[in-house]
Amino acid sequence: MLAIQGDVEAHARALARAGAEAVEVRRPKQLDGLDAQVLPGGESTTISKGMAREGLFEPLRERLRAGLPVLGTCAGAILLAREVENHPVPTLGLLDAVALRNAYGTQVDSFAAPVDPGADPAFAGLRCVFIRAPRLARPGPGVEVLARVDGEPVLVRQGRILAATFHPELTGDPRVHAVLVALAAG
Predict the structure, then answer these.
(1) Domain membership flag for residue 99
(2) DSSP string covering 132-145, please?
(3) Between 178 and which of 1, 18, 133, 156 could a Cys-Cys bridge form, CB atoms 3.0 to 4.6 Å apart?
């Protein structure tokens, strides 16, 4: 998982609950041999600058385009988006959606909510934790919405790309990370 900034330890625990071992990535060489990638939440500007500083954008983009499964959560979802609004940052541009940074407000506006009824059955009842969360707008035709909260897409999939606008690593529920592990397995 990308370990430039964000709650890397919580993702490592979530991956372990889903049956996988986390490997921290800070430099391009550390991408070699991975079965999947996690782009954690955190501060998207800081993570984007760190990726640029370490030369990670192109090597990571190449691996993801070649089919390496990825899960981007909160800031990680922003970094996957084709476009960013509300203080844009450089992104990988691989998820056909527009990320609206801090769409739910500031840190004090953080909240938790269950997914709306009608979510993909694999995610029914999933509790979502939003912290300065983005929204994903204008998803393209290849983007499948797996779950919504208050009618807004919060968990999407485009091929081997998963993006969550919330923090599944903070709930103890392994389902989102388990999907990534399943994608990596086959």
Answers:
(1) yes
(2) S--EEES--TTPEE
(3) 18
pLDDT tens digits, 55-69: 999 999 999 999 999
Q: How confident is the model at residue 184 (pLDDT cuts 50, 70, 90)?
A: very high
2, part of any domain:
no
Non-local (6+) Cβ contacts of 47 within 8 A are 2, 4, 5, 6, 39, 75, 76, 79
Instruction: Considering the candidates 11, 74, 128, 177, report the single residue annotated as catalytic.
Output: 74
Q: What percent of the chain has pLDDT over 70?
A: 100
Domain extent for 168: 8-185
**Catalytic residue at 169?**
yes
**Three-class DSSP category at 146:** strand
Q: Which position among 11, 128, 169, 177 bears the catalytic label?
A: 169
Domain of residue 67, CATH code: 3.40.50.880
Q: Is residue 167 among the annotated active site residues?
A: yes
